[in-house]
Specification:
The complex is a heterotetramer, with 2 copies of chain A (262 residues) and 2 copies of chain B (305 residues). Chain A is of the alpha/beta class and 262 residues long. Chain A is built from 7 helices and 16 strands. Chain A folds into 2 domains: 92 residues, Translation factors (Elongation Factor Tu (Ef-tu), domain 3, Beta Barrel), CATH 2.40.30.10; 151 residues, Nucleotide-binding domain of ferredoxin-NADP reductase (FNR) module (Rossmann fold). Helix content of chain A is 22%, strand content 35%. In chain A, the strands form 3 sheets. In chain A, strands 4-3-7-1-2-6-5 form a 7-stranded antiparallel sheet. In chain B, the strands form 3 sheets. In chain B, strands 3-4-7-8-9-10-13-14 form an 8-stranded parallel β-barrel, surrounded by 6 helices. In chain B, strands 5-6-12-11 form a 4-stranded antiparallel sheet, with no helix packed on it. Chain B is globular, with a radius of gyration of 18 Å. Classes of the chains: A alpha/beta (262), B alpha/beta (305). The interface between B and C is large, with 50 and 50 residues. One FE2/S2 (inorganic) cluster binds next to loops of chain D.
Chain lengths: 262, 305, 305, 262
């Protein structure tokens, strides 16, 4: 099922020195992937940086998959310097994705993405649309430069509402505030989200308050990505007990109600 | 043909590459990537008598060419292990080594006794060197007498061969290796992780949930190699070298320093097929250098200037 | 304005950044690159009573994010040092610290006595932790009693303040730090290099002419930081943190762990102006975080989960 | 005198994946340099590989200096991937160069270069020619691919004799054998050389046997390159005593007669 392979960078797009999109030739992984799953990407053959980096599958077509990432440190910076034609080693598809269409009543979905957290939501939105589910994307960032893939959603005719903390584009404030404003007039049957921990915590509260089930994709430092190191755990409720569960294997997507925030 | 098999006396390995405890899960996690039968063997994740919750996250932090962890031996305990995991490993044609942890000497002995009937188990590895369990980071492997006592007790409790895994957090590694040998250990393996820590200057908080953690990976290799050399010079029993091994040449370096076999740890995370690649690289090295029997290299460091 | 000055009690530094012994020559080597008056201070290369030939090459080997060395304290001896080098350092407005080595306790004391009249010397640093001198790599800093004895003797022989430099190659660093404190040391600095080795698989020869060497650089930082934290928790005297520091944030990490000042070693080789850059980065960090006095950060690790 | 600066790679040339030539914009260093001096080049801002790498100054003009290097390991491999326009940090000029024209009788010089060891000889040859010294270059390699800069010498009308171990170009054998053949008919007043240790050892013998003074440029692992670490020493005779001398500061060029080979 899992595959570790060298994939050619077939396309590269960048927004300044902050956001990057790579298209990778990886037909087998592409075929198997589901929205919410991720890859472990090897940055270099040298021992620095040591670990692979996890990135969500941002989009796929028959042969290629895409990753969309933000330059936030040594690994992403080195990755961003790769060029079209370079090869990178990727392992995937990893983890469990978002649950789609399992509840027949889920005909209306709100997708909330904070910053680079919007990455997996594009793949998800496309799949939901295919299943005739009504999708609204809430996409928030610090400023207008942090919303580089807003146009991609719009191009697919997906209703996309943006927010920025500095008000430079769309609603001024947090994306969760934008969502709450919307909830006054319109209630989705399901929330899907990915983004910073603070945002996900707020969404857990909103989900509870409004009684809308929410699926949240968590981030965690990962040693392996495939369940071997036990490094990536978060406290998750299963039945009556709360235990450390692996984000890479049991997640990265969890039901908001099952996550024990500290 | 190159013969890269290894005879530890109590255990024959088809090649010198063993996957290290805590970096190879229960083995099963790696079957999507490699044929488990092709490696020399593997050591399962540290096993306590009872299930363990492990430490709070963050459990990992990356350092320069290294990895700090404070997993805290989260695990299912020996009973569930023997019922749920062992049956899945039936028919395995590599060495299966069980890493044993305990809060007391008796706990080590009880696990050794409990699992002793399982013939599929090739050896125990006594993890007397895990720095994560107590917050102060002290462990029996830091004291020669404690080491001797544990080994002695476990040896009395079982017939399965015993490898004692040593901690690098000591002044004199030879002394501890000798204690393990005197206690009756069939081999020693070293090194476990180096006690380490990190602080995030932004938050002033420790980088690991458990404050201290163990450092592994290429960063520690030069220190680990020195300790393996010292231990191999001190004891008669076989030494298994561990610490930052990520290539065939790394493995060869440990073997020349005196190791009979090696364990590969952190490299399993960065490349799940590291063990197989390292085996291939060892074979290729021996072919190139016209070395017929890998074991002839063990301890063959050339001290002429 | 940010106050990054440091008061060690026996010595005031304009900032916490000191260049480490053996990585800064006699200071003069760095004057093409930096104004020596702008750093907190520097420790000269280890000084023996008599001139030393040092070890045969190779004396250096690079490792993953680390450097192994077996220089063996090649040097001109204390007499030539005081005649030829000290005059060149007249008028220096940074702390000048002399790193003292000896084969016997008395040798340490004799150097301390010999140089005691020189007022331009701010402090001695007792290098009781150099692993290169004897081939087995043992040194007084690995034994609490030996540490106590040397410090005590040196303190009796001079009025210049004494910093004792500790070795990381020990089981319990707190114990050794306490011995130095009991012996009367005015401060401790740690860590010196980790005893390490390398082998070239091609030739089977050791990578260093002296077989064993000392590991330094970013690779060792997480272990060094842990030891600095432990030492600072154990003693009342100031602790100077050393090990893999290459940036202002690295320095801040050691200060939060409990160090009052830091030393920068290997980074001087890769960037001869490292010390100045680190000072700038510390100032910038304090400004950004609105920290008025750097010394308030010392030991300010946040242990809340 | 010394300078540490970021220099733009103004030009790049490569021969397969083995040999590379960078032209670096570094006017101050260029102006100060002498043949046989070297630079310490920073490979990366990351801590891997940790140390700078030493490279001889291969050529210079008013604004630029050149380095010519062979891909032999992790550092040179990473360096070789830099592109025109990238910046690299260089420290130099370091060490003492070759002695030129100090002996008035040195009107005929033989320059012996093994492999990448030919790098400093181009700068040296150009300077000697300027002083009307008669120059012959002996340039040896494993095979014809290891003689990439032979044409550069020829372009300057410098007499250039090549040798290869496999006979694929020029004289078949070692460059020292080629030199010995020449010495039968023609004796230079001075030998300058740079290359592998074995070659330099042979040249020491030849220099002694034929009583031709020789200046040899040594290689050594360097921690700093400017005299601070004492890591680069070789045993050198000074007067009656032999001591460990720093290659970076007292060398890299030494008189053949002063070098104590082990
Ligand atoms: C399942 C999953 C999916 C992700 N998908 C994306 C994506 O599609 N696009 C994107 O831009 N980012 C994504 N991230 C976050 C991304 O992995 C980190 O930004 C990246 O690892 C940072 O590496 P760095 O070397 O640049 O940063 P550094 O801070 O230098 O990294 C140091 C270490 O911390 C780890 N780390 C740092 N930040 C994070 C983080 N937020 N989450 C997990 N580990 C971290 C790194 O992996 C590395 O081990 C995802 C994370 C997870 C867990
Ligand atoms: C004064 C001087 C001038 C030089 N000029 C040139 C030149 O013009 N062109 C050229 O191609 N090479 C030159 N070299 C050799 C060059 O420095 C090495 O090839 C290079 O350092 C190898 O680095 P690496 O990371 O690719 O190899 P690795 O083997 O991965 O390097 C590992 C370590 O060993 C050191 N090292 C390895 N080989 C040598 C060597 N032969 N000499 C010194 N240190 C070494 C490296 O610097 C590094 O610290 C010169 C060396 C010296 C001392
Ligand atoms: C995440 C992690 C978990 C580990 N768990 C164990 C363990 O359960 N028992 C044990 O004896 N060693 C454990 N170790 C130590 C390794 O087995 C090995 O000794 C160490 O990592 C050094 O080897 P390396 O540098 O190749 O990783 C663990 C190491 C890591 C990185
Ligand atoms: C080449 C070299 C020489 C050294 N010489 C000495 C010395 O003479 N005396 C001493 O106390 N420490 C010596 N050290 C140790 C350093 O002062 C320092 O403690 C150590 O390198 C760790 O710091 P770093 O990681 O910043 O380099 C030397 C280190 C290096 C790399
Ligand atoms: S990242 Fe290793 S278990 Fe999840
Ligand atoms: S390379 Fe540091 S002294 Fe020569």
């Amino acid at each position: 099922m899992l595959k570790n392979q060298r994939a050619v960078i077939a396309g590269k797009k960048s927004w300044g020195n902050d956001y990057f999109l790579f298209s990778l030739e990886a037909p087998v992984i592409s075929r198997k992937s589901k929205p919410g799953q991720f890859l472990m990407v090897k940055i270099t053959d040298n021992p620095y940086p040591l670990l692979r980096r996890p990135f969500s599958i941002h989009a796929r077509n028959k042969h290629n998959i895409e990753i969309f990432f933000q330059n936030t440190g040594v690994g992403t910076s080195m990755l961003s310097q790769k060029q079209r034609g370079d090869k990178i080693e990727i392992l995937g598809p990893l983890g469990n994705g978002f649950h789609i269409g399992e509840r027949s009543e889920s005909k209306k979905a709100s997708l909330i993405g904070g910053g680079r957290g919007a990455a997996p939501l594009y793949f998800l939105a496309c799949e939901l649309v295919k299943k005739n589910i009504n999708v609204t994307v809430f996409y928030g960032g610090k400023s207008s430069e942090d919303l580089p893939i807003a146009s991609k959603f719009k191009k697919e005719n997906i209703r996309t509402l943006c927010s920025t903390e500095d008000g430079s584009s769309g609603f001024k404030g947090l994306v969760t505030d934008l969502l709450e404003t919307e909830l006054k007039t319109d209630t989705p049957s399901l929330i899907y989200a990915c983004g910073p921990e603070g945002m996900l915590k707020s969404l857990s509260k909103i989900s509870k308050k409004h009684q809308i089930p929410a699926e949240l994709s968590l981030e965690s430092i990962m040693g392996c990505g495939f369940g071997a190191c036990w490094g990536c755990v978060k406290k998750i409720k299963k039945g009556n007990t709360a235990e450390w569960h692996k984000v890479c294997e049991d997640g990265p997507v969890f039901s908001a109600g099952d996550i024990i925030w500290d | 043909m190159v013969d890269i098999s290894v005879d530890l006396g109590f255990l024959k390995l088809k090649n010198p590459v063993i996957a290290a405890s805590g970096t190879f899960g229960y083995g099963i996690e790696f079957s999507p990537f490699i044929d488990l039968n092709q490696i020399g063997g593997f050591v399962v994740k540290g096993l306590y008598l009872s299930p363990k919750q492990g430490n709070p996250p963050p459990r990992l932090a990356e350092t320069a060419c290294g990895l700090m962890n404070s997993i805290g031996l989260q695990g299912i305990g020996v009973e569930r292990f023997s019922k749920e995991v062992l049956p899945q490993l039936k028919g395995l044609r590599s060495a299966l080594i069980i890493n044993i942890c305990g809060d007391t000497n008796e706990e080590y002995a009880r696990i050794a006794e409990y699992l002793d009937k399982h013939e599929e188990i090739s050896a125990y590895e006594l993890n007397i060197s895990c720095p994560n369990v107590k917050k102060e980071g002290l462990c029996p492997a830091q004291d020669p007498d404690d080491t001797y006592e544990i080994v002695k007790l476990v040896k009395k409790s079982c017939s399965t061969p015993v490898i004692t895994k040593l901690s690098p957090n000591v002044t004199d590694i030879s002394e501890i290796a000798l204690s393990a040998e005197e206690g009756g250990s069939d081999a020693v393996s070293l090194v476990n992780t180096f006690l380490a820590m990190g602080i995030d200057p932004e938050t002033r908080k420790p980088r690991l949930g458990n404050f201290f953690g163990g450092l592994s990976g290429p960063a520690i290799k030069p220190i680990a190699l020195r300790m393996v050399y010292q231990a191999a010079s001190a004891v008669q029993i076989p030494v298994i070298g561990i610490g930052g091994i990520a290539s065939g040449r790394d493995a060869i370096e440990f073997i020349i320093a005196g190791a009979k076999a090696v364990q590969v740890g952190t490299a399993n995370f960065t490349d799940p097929d590291s063990t197989l690649r390292i085996i291939d690289e060892i074979t290729a090295f021996c072919k190139e250098k016209k070395i017929k029997r890998l074991q002839d290299l063990s301890g063959a460091v050339d001290l002429n200037p």
